[in-house]
Design goal:
single chain; five-stranded antiparallel β-sheet; Heat Shock Protein 90; five-stranded mixed β-sheet; 459 residues; Beta-Lactamase; Helix Hairpins
């Protein structure tokens, strides 16, 4: 799972848990709050009725009844004296029987009577009665008051509240996921940018560095550490290139002297035949070493070059010139050369480097061909690019070899024989030249069929 998704998951989970806990507290508090208000209301009503009942003897029985009925309107009320004798019963208490549960703080009694009977603006939902029993002493006389009030179904309200809270939690979770995903993306954007820049740095772009924002945070510390690592890599890489270039240059002169001395010795006709054969074998080995040193020196020079010296020239003319030099070699192997070169394709590049590309690709197409086979060379220009394709008939290149064929010193199994020669640096040099010109090179091959090298240059 990606870090962005993990951050989103954990932030959303933490937010949902905290919101759920808070919602539960609010929900439970909401369940208790209506009863607390009802308790306060019923207690005030009970005190009012008892005080009115205590003043009744002074005002007369008729006044007492009328006054108590007035104060008990819409309330279920029964008042008892200390001996449990009923002193007053409201009209609602006469019509609706409710049980008395002594010793209980408060309790709900559900009925089948519609709440609309008591409150005209309400629905036909069945009413419940919230009951309280109070013991009140007025002027030294104790009274027990059983008072109740019709209320809506608390269960229905609780379900409605639960649904609303659940909907709010779902909406909150969705908002948290969206917001945390965006926030995680903004937090990780510098890391993604560092990853992109680091992936773009390769052997040819080691001078590039990751910009430091200057915030002094962990992202800046990571960028600084990576830049320091790239500094060390660039230093080591340059030292390696310089070493190879210097070593190749130092080896070139003594190897050339050895070859000249060997050739001079071979011109002596008095040498025994067996000695001549040994010297010829050594001369061929020196020739391969000389070619390897030359390739290493050329590759080292290309690695140190940043921008080639470009000029505008006709690519097809250059191809025809290079192909002419290979005519004798192709005739010896009975190869057929087919060129599909139309017009004059202008290319802005280093002409000598492009010549080297053509020489290496044509040399491979001839060397690894079948007797009586074909060599094909095509060029085309479209959409601001120039495409060069060189193909040959031959044994082909395996899939696993195609991925590494441009690596230094890598040669396919079928080409490791000294019969074909080669140092395994030719295609590496070709790829480096193509990259210096901002182009690309790719290989396609089928066993016992065509092997194609496709080079695309910007026009």
């Amino acid at each position: 799972m990606k870090i962005r998704n993990r951050i989103t998951l954990w932030v959303s989970l933490a937010g949902v848990i905290s919101t759920t806990v808070l919602s539960l507290i609010v929900f439970l508090w909401g369940l208790e709050t209506p009863y607390e208000f009802l308790d306060q209301e019923l207690e005030i009503r009970a005190h009012t009725l008892v005080e009115e009942l205590a003043r009744a003897p002074k005002q007369g029985i008729g006044v007492e009844k009328e006054s108590l009925e007035h104060f008990s309107h819409l309330y279920w009320v029964r008042i008892y004296d200390a001996g449990q004798q009923l002193l007053f019963s409201s009209q609602m208490a006469e019509e609706i029987p409710l049980p008395m549960k002594a010793g209980v703080h408060g309790y709900l009694v559900n009925t089948d009577i519609p709440i609309k009977r008591f409150y005209a603006e309400e629905s036909d939902e069945a009413a419940g009665f919230w009951n309280r029993i109070f013991t009140i002493t007025v002027q030294g006389t104790p009274y027990m008051v059983h008072v109740a009030r019709p209320v809506e179904s608390i269960v229905g309200e609780s379900i409605e509240s639960a649904v609303m809270i659940g909907s709010a939690l779902l909406a909150t979770a969705l908002i948290l996921i969206a917001v945390s995903y965006q926030v995680a993306g903004k937090i990780l954007h510098p890391v993604q940018e560092i990853n992109r820049l680091a992936a773009a740095i390769n052997a040819n772009t080691l001078e590039n560095r990751i910009p430091v924002a200057g915030n002094g945070d962990e992202i800046d510390a990571l960028a600084v550490t990576l830049n320091q690592m790239f500094n060390r890599l660039q230093y080591s890489f340059l030292r390696q290139k310089e070493f190879v270039a210097n070593a190749s240059h130092e080896l070139k002169t003594p190897i050339t002297l050895l070859r000249l001395s060997m050739e001079e010795t071979l011109q002596d006709e008095s040498l025994p035949v067996n000695l001549q054969e040994k010297l010829l074998a050594q001369e061929r080995s020196l020739a391969r070493i000389s070619q390897l040193v030359k390739s290493l020196l050329d590759l080292s020079r290309l690695e140190l070059i940043e921008l080639p010296e470009k000029e505008t020239f006709c690519l097809n003319t250059l191809i025809a010139d290079v192909a002419e030099n290979f005519q004798v070699l192709m005739q010896d192997q009975r190869l057929t050369f087919q060129g599909e070169l139309q017009g004059c394709l202008s290319l802005h590049a280093d002409q000598e480097m492009i010549r080297r590309v053509l020489i290496n690709l044509l040399d491979n197409a001839i060397r690894y061909n079948l007797p009586g086979g074909q060599v094909l060379c095509q060029t085309s220009g479209e959409a601001g690019t120039v495409t060069l394709t060189i193909a040959n008939t031959g044994p082909g290149i395996g899939k696993q070899d195609q991925a590494r064929i441009f690596d230094q010193f890598y040669r396919c199994e079928q080409s490791r024989s000294t019969v074909h020669g080669g140092s395994g640096l030719g295609l590496t040099i070709v790829k480096r030249i193509v990259e210096l010109h901002g182009g690309t090179i790719a290989v396609e091959s089928e066993p016992q069929a065509w092997t194609k090298f496709k080079v695309v240059f910007p026009a």
